[in-house]
């Protein structure tokens, strides 16, 4: 919507004297006396920032890295309008709008005086002040801006405010087409990230399923092997079991013969029953993990 002398009548003719969402374009014009920067630049929003820059020693990575902290931040503002072709629109709550950028008017870095003694102290403490940076930013008078928000009449004046329907509120130098391209780029990046995340999740799930299935197969083979050894151990009814010496008896139960070979270590030290019940599944001799077992057939 163009700002001109008829904008008041256009808004007044709408239901509830409100346009829920509109895009306007105009030049920044102060309501009253404008703010003055230290260089004489006039504006309507002024931000003064003082930062301290340090170098800090990281004990883990054992390198120096740069860091900063804000010492002072002051924001001054006055009411302003967007004006064009004889029409004006008062801008309300501009600091709540997204993508409002301020021009850098003044930027100065003052390095900290460093003597040999101070360097030694900084080296011992692990912190060194590099200097102080003073920055001044302003929304200058005469800046061309686009406003995206709700238009309404307030005390006979057209105002632009944060939309009551929860739509996005923008005050920016980007035109609708430029803003749409920027958001389309973000949407494209979000879609790409979502696809990559989905593919990564699918690969992780497939790997987990494959690992679970491999363990399931190993357990089935393990149980089948132990059952095969148990079946070979069974004797006809009434036939007494063979007497075992210590060298051939299971090191765990001392009741059954050493019936299985443990892989990957290769020890032959226990029966199938004990090998099945070992928790955690580790060799009783060397405590290495049991990958699988094989029956031992004694002649």
From TrEMBL:
Mitochondrion in keyword set: yes
GO cellular component: mitochondrial outer membrane
Keywords: Membrane, Metal-binding, Mitochondrion, Mitochondrion outer membrane, Transferase, Transmembrane, Transmembrane helix, Ubl conjugation pathway, Zinc, Zinc-finger
Domain RING-type: 250-287
Enzyme class: transferase
EC number: 2.3.2.27
Any one GO BP annotation for this protein: protein ubiquitination
Chemical reaction(s) catalysed: S-ubiquitinyl-[E2 ubiquitin-conjugating enzyme]-L-cysteine + [acceptor protein]-L-lysine = [E2 ubiquitin-conjugating enzyme]-L-cysteine + N(6)-ubiquitinyl-[acceptor protein]-L-lysine
PROSITE patterns, per the entry: ZF_RING_2
Domain of life: Eukaryota
Family annotation (InterPro entries): MDM2_MDM4_MUL1, MUL1-like, Znf_RING, Znf_RING/FYVE/PHD
Compartments, as annotated in UniProt: Mitochondrion outer membrane
GO molecular-function term, one example from the UniProt record: zinc ion binding
Keyword set includes DNA-binding: no
SUPFAM superfamilies per UniProt: RING/U-box
Membrane topology category: Multi-pass membrane protein
PANTHER family linked: MITOCHONDRIAL E3 UBIQUITIN PROTEIN LIGASE 1, MITOCHONDRIAL UBIQUITIN LIGASE ACTIVATOR OF NFKB 1
Name of the protein: RING-type E3 ubiquitin transferase
Source taxonomy: Eukaryota, Metazoa, Chordata, Cephalochordata, Leptocardii
